[in-house]
Amino acid sequence: MRIAIIADPIDNQKGGVHVYTRELVRHLLQAGGGHEWILIRERKDPSLSGARQIVIPNVRIGLGLAALRLFFVVPLVLWWHKVDVVFEPAHFGPFNLPARIRRVTMIHDMTPLLFPQYHRFHSQWLQRIFLRGILRRASLILANSAHTAADIRTFFPEVASRITTIPLGCDPDMQPNANMTWLEQSGIRPPYWLSVGTIEPRKNLIRLLDAYAAYRKTEKDGLPLLVVGQKGWKSESFYRALEEHPFRADIHLAGFVPDAVLSALYTHARALVYPSEYEGFGLPVLEALSCGCPVICSGVSSLPEVGGDTAWYVDPMDTQALTRAMLQMGQLPADDYQRLRQEGRQRAALFNWADHARDWLDAVGRIDRGMPDPTPESPSAARPSGHDKVRNMPV
Fold first, then answer.
1. Which pLDDT belongs to residue 382?
2. Which of 29-49 are b and which e, b meaning 16 or more Cβ less than 10 Å from the residue's Cβ?
3. What percent of the chain stands above pLDDT 90?
4. CA dihedral 282, 170, 227, 14 (to 10 degrees)
5. What is the pLDDT of residues 282-292, one digit of tens each?
6. Domain assignments of the chain as residue spans, ordered by start
7. Rounded CA separation 270/93 (Å)
8. d(Cα 75, Cα 289) in Å, to the nearest integer?
9. Residue 226: enclosing H or E segment and its boundaries?
10. Residue 259: how many CA atoms within 13 Å on its side-chain side?
């Protein structure tokens, strides 16, 4: 088949969808499968081989030019190149394709519908207008977790028979990394508590600041807090709370860091503290475990599917529970702590991009042979055992 991937997130994002698209493309090209690959991108990567890259610049001066590219230019290019399948990895499209071209859409989460207050108005507005039509026209809908698949069925039960769940993988370079260069240059001495993710309301970072204040009032010489992630939308209240924090001097903002640095930051952290209110998957949890970094995270949405029985889970709305978890993790005996690090790496090994790419190819190949397994526990979904018994509850 001639398969096109709208790979814009590789060029215009730095968050989870960027990682997903980058790793999927890399591993699909390695897997081959006898297919012809076309990548629609905003700029060309000369180092990437195995796919034809078609560059369609995206001019972001008002919505008009971006909409022209999305709704007319990209579909025309795909039609001209006679593709058989088009894959949209960022869940907004593809659009305006003839019926002979099969559409595959990846849904990472349903937060614009579940938590519209946490998104910019135009984002939630566009999702409400277009998402139902996108899913109705899709030949195959991919979900990154059983929880996301269940959310799709709740909002759009009419498409349930076309949903297949394929858990994400973990970058093989996300391994223990003893390099201290970035930390030394930044004047940060490990260990520390680590937060990773775009700074936006759903990540629940104001509650993390409150929990950290309570932790430091109990542990006078407690560990610093390192916050990694680019500034996102509706983040003004976080920065106000940060500037008023009683322990502001011990809270460090790193902004976006490359993966080679991020793996080192996970490695030297006491734990990743991730009280997100909702995640479609939760890549930072998986990355932390892969680097041997214990995890304290919310016990909601898809996070138990990722953390299994190795993460420590808390109610994301309970500041005191989060504080207690940090205190207990900080006081954990050395043998228990090392065992937790090892168990985390074993858990993370269940998720890899090679398996994801293989399951992706299998799901797309089944379009011609009948629709994929409609249950959220499709063959690939069972691989990481998303319904493990949760233990290690600190509260």
1. 38
2. beeebebebbbbbbeebeeee
3. 75
4. -90
5. 999 999 999 99
6. 2-169+352-365, 181-348
7. 40
8. 40
9. strand 225-228
10. 18
Q: In a 10 Å sphere around its CB, with 0-12 CB exposed, 13-18 middle and 19+ buried, how is residue 178 labelled?
A: exposed
Whole-number Cα distances in Å, 32 to 24, 94, 270, 367:
12, 23, 40, 18
Task: Tell me how many degrees the CA angle 334-339-344 measures, rounded to the nearest 5.
Answer: 130
- pLDDT tens digits along 111-162: 888 887 776 666 667 777 888 999 999 999 999 999 999 999 999 999 999 9
CA-only gyration radius of the chain, Å: 21
Q: Does 2-169+352-365 match 181-348 in CATH topology?
A: yes
CA distances in angstroms from 110 to 13, 172, 384, listed in the order given: 19, 28, 22
- Cis peptide bond prior to 191, omega within 30° of 0: yes
Query: Which tokens hold the place of 365?
Result: 């190949």
Stated length of the chain: 395
- Give the span between the Cα atoms of 208 and 318, in whole angstroms: 10
Quick check: helix, strand or coil at residue 4? Answer: strand
Picking from 138, 188, 183, 182, the residue whose alpha carbon sits closest to that of residue 163 is: 138
- The more confident residue out of 238 and 92 is 238
Contact 224, 194 (CB under 8 A): no
- CATH homologous superfamily of 2-169+352-365 equals Glycogen Phosphorylase B; (3.40.50.2000)
Check if the beta carbon of residue 199 is closer than 8 Å to that of residue 238. Answer: yes
Pairing assessment for the beta strands 225-228 and 193-196 based on DSSP bridges:
parallel
- The helix (H) or strand (E) run that includes residue 253 is strand 251-255
| H runs (alpha helix) in 301-352 | 303-307, 319-330, 334-348
- pLDDT over 70 at 390, yes or no: no
pLDDT over 50 (residue 247): yes
Q: Before 98, cis peptide (omega within 30)?
A: no
Class of domain 181-348: alpha beta
The b/e string for 106-130 (b: 16+ C-beta within 10 A; e otherwise) is: bbbbbbbbbeeebbeeeebeebeee
The pLDDT of residue 68: 86
